[in-house]
Structure prediction request, 222 residues.
Amino acid sequence: MSSIFNSILAGDFSVGIYLICLLFAGICGAVTALVFSRESSSSRSFLLSLVILPIIVATVIVMVNGNIGTGIAVAGAFSLVRFRSAAGRARDISAIFLVMTAGLACAAGYVAIALLFTLISSAVILLLSNVKLRSDRLAELHITVPESVHFADAFDDLFREYTKSWKLLKAKTSNMGSLYKLNYQIEMKNPAAAQSFLDALRCRNGNLEIALLNAAEEGEEL
Prediction:
């Protein structure tokens, strides 16, 4: 049974073995892409990248094959790609590391380990995605108020009515000091009452700008 976890590169390297490595790398990437397409709103290009990336990584590692000079050149190339890229969401970066690990395992010939690792990781992702965390219920509330409003306790009664908790994160002046922009972190009692909550706030802040944002989405970049 343990023999399936041995490297297929134990013998002479051949085109057939190389194609097997690429096949399993592509399968691992496809499984990961299917899981992330189900659990998050990822673009088509990103999902295609998850399929292609382990194949690329496997080929690059096979080409290096103990050559120190080539390895340094590859590391430099990957570093340039990383620092030329914008910061992404935590879940997207996790997906990239997952498929790169599978690609590395396939390049080393451990195709069974790569497939098992992908299946276990996918199962964990599917399981955790159904667990509701407190951060999923948190939201950011941005309120603009005129300078005549004493904002320290102006909305406390509404917060007590519609939220479980609230905290003022930031307050800054705007429009030559005639307005205050307030950022709160809140936890709604009932998300379905968001419109009623915003309507009540509009009556209190003179119908100025109000924004309610998902705090988890705003703060998940790496």
Q: What stands out?
A: The first strand starts at residue 138 and ends at 146. The chain has eight helices and four strands. The helical segments are 15-39, 44-64, 68-83, 90-107, 111-129, 156-162, 194-204, 215-218. The beta strands are 138-146, 163-174, 179-188, 210-214.
